[in-house]
Structures are given as C-alpha cells and as structure tokens.
Amino acid sequence: MKRQILRIITLALLACTGLIASGCAVQEPTDPEPISPLTFPEVRTIQNDQLEEFAALIPAEQIVDRWGPIEATMGMSCDTDLGGRKPYFQEETGTRMLTGGIYLYLSDSADVAAILDQFASSKAGLDWGVAPADGTNAAQADLVLESPDGFSYYVNFNSNTLRGANQLSIRSYGPCVIPPKDFSPHDEY
C-alpha cells in the first residue's frame, strides 16, 4: 500500500514537472498594449494622412483609380481576442481602435516590388517596424509597417482583381485609445 501511494505521488510530481517544463502551466498574462493619449479624430487624421503619404509615393500616372481613404469606421475593441481564449466582447481596458484603409488601382506598368521598397525605405531610420515584403510575416501581407506611436499598415497586392485592375490595398489600424464618453460600438468615427 505504501509503495502504491509513493508511486502515485511520484507520477503526480512527474506530470506537474512535465507540464511546467513544456509551458502548459498557467502563464502570466502579457502586458497589455499601451493606451495612446490620442482622440478618435486625431487617430483618424493621422491614419488617413499616412495613407495619403503612401499613395503620394507612387507616380500619379501609375494610379488608374482609387477608393479611400476610409472616412469612418466603428471603434473596434482592443480587448477582443478572436483566437478563442476569452469571450468576444469581454472588456478589460475599455479601449478601442479605429481601422481604415485605401485601395489603389495600378496600371500594368507599375513596378509593385519597387513601390513596396519605396514604402519601406520611406520609414527607414524613423523607428518604424518593417516586416519583410515576402508574405511570410504573421499577417501574411506583402508588407507590414508599424509606427512607433502604435499605428499599423498592412499592404497587399492583388493582380487582375474582379475590377480587372491591379489592386494595392493598404489596411490601417490605429493605436488603442480611450473612446469618447458618448461612444457607441455601433457608431462610426
């Protein structure tokens, strides 16, 4: 009997040690994203100004059409985790981010690789994060640019879209901010 109890205790200790060593034990939560002091209107202005700056780096004769920048979107929760680890609308910080974007339709003569290089080099030395333009970054975008103040820009190129044009889309995500007092998740900002 004593031997069985020792065997059970030993197995339990080994199992716990294995869980801890494999990282399956309870992990400390990561630090939340810092909360930006910007307001919704400031975020929208900065986002759209940057999208226009990116568009201005492309020679005008290579842009045959455009849509955007997006004027207003709903404020998305910064606490949402679509990976299933917490309920969809569980609020922890109460912060929100604004999404945005622009779609540029390019001529067949546009050199997309050069355009992506131009976007990346325009932020070189400015403390921006630049993920490789090889489609292997976590977002699987052609290029990801992240500003030091929390803005992210995901650039994707699609040739011959349904519109029959080469589409360069730039999706933008603002930093997490405290929403205005009269905030509604159904309104656009």
Automatic annotation (TrEMBL):
It comes from Leucobacter chromiiresistens. It comes from the Bacteria. This is Lipoprotein. The keyword Signal applies. Residues 1-21 form the signal peptide. Keywords: Signal.
